[in-house]
Specification:
This protein is mostly helical. It contains 4 helices and no strands.
Length: about 100
Amino acid sequence: MAVACSSALDGAPARVAAALVAVAALGLLGYIHREDLTGLARVASGDAAKPAAADDPFARCMAEHGQKVDKMVKDGMIQPALAETFKSRAEGLCRAGAAGATKAQ
């Protein structure tokens, strides 16, 4: 039981147009995020990433907390698996603190 196209939106030209719109949208997203995509290529090729700015509150906070957690692992106070949990929690804390520091400026 074949159903005839009841609308121009059900036909092949509409599907081709939809495919072109999808390809154009993906192309636009690729263009907008070209720096992000080339940054991934740089990391994959082994090029060093730019060092974090000394005045970046998030980078400073993560460095401080990372050193504290690494010292706790070295001293035998916590296991390495728990250290990863601590570092992930520190990331949230540092992001919140950095957002607050940015708003205060």
